[in-house]
Amino acid sequence: MTNSLLFGISIFVYFLAMVLYVSYLAFRSEGLGKVATFSLLAGVIVETAAVGMRWYESYQMGIGRAPLTNLYESLVFFALTIAVTYLILEKKFGIKTIGAFVTPFPFIIMAYASLNPNNIQPLVPALKSNWLIAHVVTCFVGYAAFAVSFGVSIIYLFKARAERLAGKDAGTFLGFVPATEILDEIGYKTIAIGFPLLTIGIVTGAFWANVAWGTYWSWDPKETWSLIVWLIYAAYLHARITRGWRGTRAAVLSIVGFSATIFCYLGVNLILSGLHSYGGQ
Amino acid sequence: MTPNQPAENKQRAFTEKVWDFFTSLKLVISLLLVLSALSIVGTVIEQNKPLQEYYRVYQPSTVDLFNKLGLFDMYHSWWFSALLALLALNIIACTMDRYNPIMRGLRKRNLILDETLEKSLQSKDKFKYALPLADVEKRALEVVGKRFTGKPIITQLADGDRHCFFEQGKYSRLAFFFTHLSVLLIFIGALIGSFFGYKGFVNINEGETISRLETRAGENKELNFAVKCNTFTAEFYRDGMPKDYRSDLSVIKDGKEVLRKTIRVNDPLTFEGITFYQSSYGSIPERVQLEVRNQDGTLQGVADASFGQRVAVPGTREQLEVANYQEHFRLPDGSDGGIALGVNIYPEKGEPSGIWLLMSDPDVDKLRRRPYYLLIKDWQLKKYTGLQVNKDPGEAAVWGGSLLLIAGILVAFFVSHKKLWLCLSKDKKGRTELTIGGTTNKNRPAFIREVAGIIQSLKEVS
Question: Containing domain of residue A102, as a range?
């Protein structure tokens, strides 16, 4: 299948992008940085083509559905949203040095996805709904924004620590990444993008559940974990906006939030059981 | 000083303390984090299972402890509900606390850019032009008008100074109410649903009609109308995965069909506030013919039984009833025994007893060593559709609250209340002096860039 081939190529392109971003951080050459961005963009283009091809091929098979309905498809889509979200934020905030901490995600996720079965299965009745695309896309773009915030928060912690220990001018690559205040601000802004999207994702999910099963909230593990994630980021936002929590505490909360996000996405499907079992297969 | 004044003060101090507690940010953040941490428990311990299943997984003493703590239905336990109630109180108190400051911020309009105001602004500049005041004003309004929508309020003072006031995104200050009251609205919707609604389940055989159903709470609900299942269809893909489940339903009121709809998963039927969802399906035997044989194998007769009805066992004084049907009977060793019929035998005197007849193993009854044994000869199946039934008058509040919440969050993050002033005056040499200043309530860096752009354009005016 063409889509598998394209996905395979995108794994290598993402790997290359990751290596280039890390080299950029190590050698600090502008040219290298440009190539890194370009290669990540190439990875996004190849993978977008792969997703489109998979969609098209499903129609050729007489199944005809959006490629967003099992573990393999959600993983590749997650990798794509992280890469796209990161590229947009790199352009908006000029944070190329952060790429080394974010671009490993698309590569690792794609590599993990390739271990899962990737044949195109027809949809079970519960998934035949117009809500599918709105629900999945908002959730995953939200997750991707949280992933970027997570990467930024990790660097923030490293940099803040290095500054505490060695004074302002850390000689390592940390001297090269943006100032702590900027990292802190980006960590917040990405959450400010992810939070409304997660909210929309939860509401569309609840609405869909109500149409499919006659109950908008049943404390199913997936629902509960999405609420846990929402509560953690809600706490982050309240602490930050009202109380001015910044810096280390905010970074830690962002890391906790993303860990919960990953559990909500993968842990629930792979470890716990419940209504939302499509994603585990 | 009256003697009871200290007591009054004390009381005041106490209510103030309570108020401070309920409006404190510490409470909000602790509640959000505690709720999220506690919620994890219910995803690790499976909820609402029969007690026997817990005994299989945990030690008996652990089961007793968990049961006492309400951990098997923790999201409906008193302590979880109490935390949610505390969150609601917290939201109400914070909303009341913030009402006056927010409304003040909304109403406060300083139309004049005087010295005190100018000092308080971070984004400001001042320059002079050799042009007449009216020209400068016209050009300046054009420049600012490109970035600020809405008409400025222009005030002319006695000394000839003209002040222009631009304002945008004023009502974004109300986002606080939207985000917080929406959560209360969702809570209210959930409460209305749990007090005035119900969830239930009903099986309808093909061609049959029901007008009552059993709720999850175990009550019988009589409907004001009847629902008929005309047909049920299940379709499968070639590999056996389900493709489509659908039931052709009719709603019958006062003997007349008032609504007919084919429902599917994701496409339910709603009538008079009650919604029917495609949930499961199955078959039951309509008529069963059972051979009654003596232990030596001779045929004693054939019992022709409708499902759920007692009929005489030929050649005996006993009666039987086909009461159960399973497509995949679980044998004691856990394996699939195939199709099985559950039959109750009613002796002339004494207690009835139940037996299972297996299609795959006709000898199973013979081995029971009773005077006669039963053999399944023939049966006709009838399909039924399983419908989840839901009445929830609180739904509108939940969805209204959800929309408000989303709108509120978007406004809270992405719309800010911006104010910009221009002051035009003439200096002693007859030049026009323009002072510009602005302020915003959030996202200052972006606003500073925006004002810097305006200032740049104003400098180019000549």
Answer: 1-123
Per CB-CB distance under 8 Å, the chain A contacts of B242 are 124-125
**Cβ contact B39–A125 (<8 Å):** no
Question: Are A178 and A86 found together in one domain?
Answer: no
With a cut of 80, say whether residue A277 has pLDDT above it.
no
Contact B266 A234 (CB under 8 A): no
Residue A162 confidence (pLDDT): 84
Burial class (CB in 10 A: 0-12, 13-18, 19+), B196: exposed
Q: Are residues A36 and A109 in the same domain?
A: yes
Nearest CA in chain B to A130: B266
What does the pLDDT look like over B324-347, one tens digit per residue?
Answer: 888 888 887 778 888 888 899 898
Interface check for A216 against chain B (CB to CB < 8 A): the answer is yes
Is the predicted pLDDT of residue A279 greater than 80, yes or no? no
The answer to whether the CB atoms of A212 and B405 lie below 8 A apart is no
Size of chain B in residues: 462
How far is B76 from chain A, CA to nearest CA, in Å?
A: 10
On whether the pTM is more than 0.90, the answer is no
Domain termination residue (choose one: A123, A157, A190):
A123
pLDDT for the residue B426: 87
CB distance B42–A227 less than 8 Å? no
Same domain membership, residue A131 and residue A75: no
User: Which residue on chain B is closest to A200 by alpha carbon?
Assistant: B406
pLDDT digits (tens, 9 = 90+) for B175-227: 999 999 999 999 999 999 999 999 999 999 999 999 999 898 888 989 999 99
Which chain B residues touch A268 with a CB distance below 8 Å?
Answer: 43
Confidence of residue B7 (pLDDT cuts 50, 70, 90): low
Which fold, B109-169+416-459? TATA-Binding Protein (3.30.310)
Residues A96 and A132 in one domain: no
3-state secondary structure chain A: CHHHHHHHHHHHHHHHHHHHHHHHHHHCCHHHHHHHHHHHHHHHHHHHHHHHHHHHHHHHCCCCCCCCCCHHHHHHHHHHHHHHHHHHHHHHHCCHHHHHHHCHHHHHHHHHHCCCCCCCCCCCHHHCCCHHHHHHHHHHHHHHHHHHHHHHHHHHHHHHHHHHHHCCCCCCHHHCCCCHHHHHHHHHHHHHHHHHHHHHHHHHHHHHHHHHHCCCCCCCHHHHHHHHHHHHHHHHHHHHHHHCCCHHHHHHHHHHHHHHHHHHHHHHHHCCCCCCHHHHC
Q: Do A243 and B242 touch (CB under 8 A)?
A: no
| Count of domains observed in chain A | 2
Which range is least confidently modeled, A120-129, B156-165, B359-368?
A: B359-368
Tokens of B144: 């600012």
- Domain shared by A51 and A89, yes or no: yes
Chain B nearest CA to A18, separation (Å)? 31
Which of the residues B27, B33, B36, B395 would you substitute to probe the A interface, choosing the one with the greatest number of A C-beta atoms within 10 Å? Answer: B36
Same domain as A254, residue A216: yes
Interface check for B409 against chain A (CB to CB < 8 A): the answer is yes
At B410-442, the pLDDT tens digits run: 999 999 999 999 999 988 888 889 999 999 988
Kindly state whether residues A140 and A164 are assigned to the same domain.
Answer: yes
The chain-wide mean pLDDT, for chain B, equals: 88
Give the residue extent of every domain in chain B: 14-105, 109-169+416-459, 195-281+386-406, 284-385
The reply to whether A121 touches chain B by the CB within 8 Å rule is yes
Confidence class for position A79, pLDDT limits 50, 70, 90: very high
- Nearest by CB to B29, from A125, A219, A239: name it: A239
For this complex, say whether ipTM is above 0.85.
yes
Q: Give me the residue from B32, B268, B389 closest to A234, CB to CB.
A: B32
Q: Is there a contact between B409 and A215 if contact means CB atoms under 8 Å apart?
A: no
Q: Which of A123, A145, A180 is the last residue of a domain?
A: A123
Shared domain for A117 and A131, answered yes or no, is: no
